[in-house]
TrEMBL record:
UniProt xrefs under InterPro entries: Kielin_Chordin-BMP_Reg, Ser_inhib-like_sf, TIL_dom, TILa_dom, VWF/SSPO/ZAN-like_Cys-rich_dom, VWF_type-D
Gene Ontology BP terms: positive regulation of BMP signaling pathway
Keywords for this protein: Disulfide bond, Glycoprotein, Secreted, Signal
Gene Ontology cellular-component annotations: extracellular region
Chief localization: secreted
VWFD domain location: 1-105, 315-490
Location of this chain's protein in the cell: Secreted
Name this protein carries in UniProt: VWFD domain-containing protein
């Protein structure tokens, strides 16, 4: 059986059961994984398609979302995120969407696009050979009809069977859901499965288990050989571990194959893992832990949801347009200085074998617009111990490609950009007008400074040349100015000097630039990988200048 017994908790794959700080317990109860909190929230999931959420009574009229406001009035359950009432379930769903997933849709736009059956098919699916058993007055659910109205369950069943065009077994899930709802209310449901109708042999189940139409879902687990604490539930249709076997996640294993509990998390027998700080490497074999280190050139991180030591990743600083900066720590800011500045250099190198470098960018006023105080990169210089490399279009470096110092430095054209790379991993690219990128290897983490930042995973503060910190961008930018004789320049703008547009212009420009973050536009598939907001803001900022 496929292993449906792992959760991601804060991005890390974790086996069941697990107990988290704040009294959150996640465990397998019957065929469902349950998340239970100390304040009474209970969420269960059958690993396929069914989710239940239960809140304590103190949350009456204090909830929102697709499950409604819990005020005992079903007529106002289409409440949108803005507090108003929606006109349809599709509008409700769209309002509470939390992520953009390429290809997803907010329901069908009109009735003609919604899946449907013709009258003959619908009548067929309403019979006892399909969904009809749900509401049959003499069927297996007859004792439950007075407790849980079968009509909605029945209609949902017919709708889904139509949607799947009568695919074999599509109705079985609905009969099972109604069975569980009734059994959880203490109602007896007669056996309705047959070898030719939703056979139990087709149900997903673990090895070393057997089917029970109304079985005990509080299984003894490998955690301590006992059922979960306070598990007192009515019987349910479920699969139960055979005698002599215990529940390990969602698998039934003999006692000698049970795993280990370590810091309130369960690990399978033989499973190896690194502790949260990667300071120990543990194996679930009597829980044997040994000292461990990632070393100076690797980080303890989650990769593919598993904690491991990974080589320090490169960091890239991007300077575009009227300089919009995205520093090594992915922090965005704007600085419109027209002088020459150190954008990145090696610093704090004491005790390391890292090589020194400095990248300097000379900005100039943007002459292709009448808007003042706009600047772009005019020249980029990379300074190393043995050379000062300046990739100029009409300057000294006209015989590109070439290399220096036996290949320690290479200069070449990369598409529309000029590039300088070094043997220690530094790479600088420049399009001669608008865009500069500086990439440093992960070994320089915490050992860079300049306008591209300190590569320290910290945002919100800017480091000055003397090591002090500031939150003012203009102060920060001016501090990294490189003095150049006989050059008149400015360190950006303040107040009314900064370019701006009126409300009418802004509205027009927002329409033009909005395509970049349109959830149904050409860039929609990229939104989950790159936040479009920063690109939109930069584009909106530049639009007035380029439209003059």
């Amino acid at each position: 059986m496929k292993n449906y017994s792992v959760f991601q908790i804060n991005g890390e794959i974790t086996n069941l059961p697990v107990k988290l700080k704040g009294n959150i317990t996640i465990q397998q109860i019957g065929d469902f994984a349950e998340i239970k909190t100390a304040f009474g929230l209970l969420v269960s999931y059958d690993w396929v398609s069914t989710v239940h959420a239960k809140v304590p009574s103190i949350y009456a009229d204090a909830t929102c979302g697709l499950c409604g406001n819990n005020n005992y009035n079903p007529k106002d359950d289409l409440q949108l995120k803005n507090g108003t009432q929606g006109g349809s379930p599709e509008e409700l769903g769209k309002s509470w969407r939390v992520a953009e997933i390429p290809g997803c849709v907010d329901g069908c736009k009109n009735d003609s696009q919604c899946p449907s059956c013709d009258i003959t098919q619908k009548e067929k699916y309403e019979t006892n050979k399909y969904c009809g058993l749900i509401r049959s007055p003499t069927g297996p659910f007859q004792q439950c009809h007075a407790i849980i109205n079968p009509e909605r369950v029945f209609q949902n069943c017919v709708y889904d069977v139509c949607l799947y065009n009568g695919k074999k077994g599509a109705w079985c899930n609905h009969l099972r859901r109604y069975t569980l709802q009734c059994q959880r209310r203490g109602v007896n449901v007669s056996q309705w499965r047959r070898e030719d109708f939703c056979p139990k042999s087709k149900m997903m189940h673990p090895d070393n288990s057997h089917y029970e139409h109304c079985g005990d879902i509080c299984h003894a687990t490998c955690e301590n050989g006992l059922p979960p604490v306070d598990c007192k539930r009515p019987c349910e249709e479920t699969w139960v571990c055979n005698a002599g076997f215990l529940l390990s996640g969602r698998q039934c294993v003999p006692f000698d194959q049970c795993g280990c509990m370590y810091k309130n998390k369960y690990y399978r027998k033989g499973q190896s893992f690194l502790t949260r700080d990667c300071q120990q490497n543990c194996t679930c074999n009597g829980m044997n832990c040994q000292p461990h280190s990632c070393g100076p050139y690797a980080n303890c991180v989650l990769r593919n949801s598993i904690r491991s030591c990974q080589p320090l990743e490169n960091a890239t600083c991007t300077i575009t347009g009227d300089p919009h900066y995205k520093n090594f720590d992915n922090h965005h800011y704007d600085f419109q200085g027209t002088c020459t500045y150190t954008v990145a250099e090696a610093c704090h190198l004491g005790g390391s074998y890292l090589k020194n470098f400095s990248v300097v960018v000379e900005n100039e006023k943007w002459t292709r617009t009448d808007t003042p105080n706009l600047s772009v990169a005019k020249l980029v210089a990379v300074e190393l111990i043995f050379c000062r490399c300046v990739p100029q279009l009409n300057g000294a470096l006209t015989t590109i490609p070439f290399n220096l110092n036996d290949g320690q430095v290479e200069v070449f054209q990369e598409g529309f950009h000029y590039a300088i790379t070094t043997d220690f991993g530094l790479k600088v690219t420049y399009d001669t007008v608008y865009r500069v990128e500086v990439t440093v290897p992960g070994t320089y983490m915490g050992k860079t400074c300049g306008l591209c930042g300190s590569f320290s995973n910290k945002t919100g503060e800017y480091e000055l040349p003397d090591g002090k910190k500031t939150t003012d961008v203009k102060t920060f930018g001016a501090a990294w100015k490189v003095p150049v004789s006989s050059v008149v320049c400015e360190d950006g703008c303040t107040g009314d000097q900064c370019p701006k547009c009126d409300s009418v212009q802004k509205e027009d420009f927002e329409k033009d630039c909005g395509i970049i973050k349109n959830s149904k536009g050409p860039f929609a598939a990229c939104h989950s990988q790159l936040n479009p907001e920063h690109y939109y803001r930069d584009l909106l900022f530049l639009h007035p200048a380029h439209s003059t």
